[in-house]
Design goal:
Mean pLDDT: 84
Order of helices and strands: HHHHH
Shape: rod-shaped
Number of helices: 5
Strand content: under 5%
Organism: Dongia soli
Number of domains: 1
Distance between the termini: 140 Å
Keywords: Coiled coil
Protein name: Lipoprotein
Number of strands: 0
Low-confidence stretches: none
């Protein structure tokens, strides 16, 4: 009988060892693609898979919300960029107009030079001043690094100089 007990103990030991190996190999991950049958049953019955589905749905909703928020930010940035471009275009147009006005002043000076009763020295000085403002206008048109406010301020400064030069020419030529 002693022999029989030993044999039964060995069988029990083997079964116990096999059962432990089976249980050790059945660590459930919660992923139905990776889990075996027994873990799958446990996942279904225990709600583990439903919990996993809920988490995945929440992650998807969070990602969609984030995408919508980023799209709004992108739209805001595009609108801001478009507004800034319109401001730049407006200032550039005004600077081009100022440049044309300065060319007209130059033409008036050339006409005034033919009149010998006009002070030629003052005309020459006025011509130099106009050339300086034209140069500054060209620089202002080429300036793409300054802020819109700085460019607008520079435009106003140059327009004031133009107005002063126009008044000066009127004084020199006697209003002609």
């Amino acid at each position: 009988m002693d022999n029989m007990v030993r044999t039964e103990m060995r069988k029990f030991g083997w079964l116990l060892g096999a059962g432990m190996l089976f249980l050790a190999g059945c660590s459930c991950t919660g992923d139905p693609r990776l889990d075996g049958y027994s873990c799958g049953q446990a996942g279904i019955n225990g709600g583990l898979y439903n919990q996993r589905v809920t988490q995945k749905q929440q992650s998807l909703e969070d990602a969609q919300d984030q995408k919508v928020q980023q799209q709004r930010q992108l739209d805001d940035l595009k609108a801001q960029q478009q507004s800034q471009q319109q401001d730049i275009d407006k200032i550039s147009t005004q600077l081009a107009s100022l440049d044309q006005d300065l060319n007209q002043l130059n033409a008036k000076i050339k006409t005034a030079r033919s009149n010998k009763s006009v002070n030629q020295t003052r005309l020459s000085q006025l011509q130099q001043d106009i050339d300086q403002v034209k140069s500054q206008t060209s620089l202002a048109k080429a300036d793409t690094f300054s802020s819109d406010a700085d460019r607008q301020q520079e435009l106003q400064r140059l327009q004031k100089k133009y107005d002063d030069l126009q008044r000066e020419l009127m004084l020199i030529t006697g209003g002609t």
